[in-house]
Amino acid sequence: MLNELDLYSSPLWTSFSEEEFTSTIVKCNNMSAHGLDRLLWKYLKHIIKNKICLKNIITIANACFEIGYWPNHFKNLITIVIPKPNKTLYDSPKSFRFIVLLNMLGKLIEKVISDRLQFHIISNNFIYQSQLEGVKFKSTTDAGITLTHFICIGWIKNMLTSFLAFDKVQFFSLLNH
């Protein structure tokens, strides 16, 4: 595990690159809601095309990471409550959709940090190999291979194996899956 002193000397901490920001923002949906600052992803994508603007954004991200401070401007949020259409009663939370608006520049920097952390976690084998949910570079094919592996290991050990599948959406109907 890295302690605070090792963080800056580790390969995890190097200055952010233009490629990290451009590859991260490409994946952002232009149709999503605007941020607290009223920016849309498509506007931020256009801004980042300008090399001077991109370098300034990278400078902000590097400075935040180096001094260990996340500005309040990036922490502020507003939650908007929107009633779902065609509901007969609006007396429970599941009748509403909650949308959280954050500062888009802060969201972009968080996405870049998240991508970098997940890359290092996966490349250094910090996650158990059968952990598949929420991990990039994993797919349903990987889940199938892992399941097949566990079944075959059971057969080798002369064990009976069984498999139970269920639709978690039916068990947790109030969650947005």
Please tell me about this protein's structure.
The chain has 177 residues and is mainly alpha-helical. The protein folds into two domains: 4-72 and 104-126, no CATH class; 128-177, no CATH class. 47% of the residues lie in helices and 8% in strands. It contains eight helices and two strands; from the N terminus they run H-H-H-H-H-E-E-H-H-H. It has helices at residues 4-7, 18-26, 41-49, 51-67, 72-75, 104-123, 140-156, 168-171, and strands at residues 77-83, 96-102. Strands 1-2 form a two-stranded antiparallel ribbon. Helix 2 packs antiparallel against helix 3 and helix 2 packs across helix 6. The longest helix is centred in the middle third of the chain and has 20 residues, at 104-123. The model is unreliable at 1-9 (pLDDT under 50).
Tally of helical runs: 8
Give the C-alpha Rg: 21 Å
**Low-confidence spans: pLDDT under 50, at least 5 residues?**
1-9
Distance between the termini: 32 Å
In round numbers, the mean pLDDT is 80
Order of helices and strands: HHHHHEEHHH
The portion of residues forming beta strands comes to: 5-15%
Total number of distinct structural domains: 2
> Could you say which structural class the secondary elements and strand pairing correspond to?
mainly alpha
Summarize the amount of helix as a percent range. 40-55%
Largest sheet: 2 strands, antiparallel
Oligomer class: single chain
Strand order of the largest sheet: 1-2
Overall body shape: flat
Q: How many E strands?
A: 2
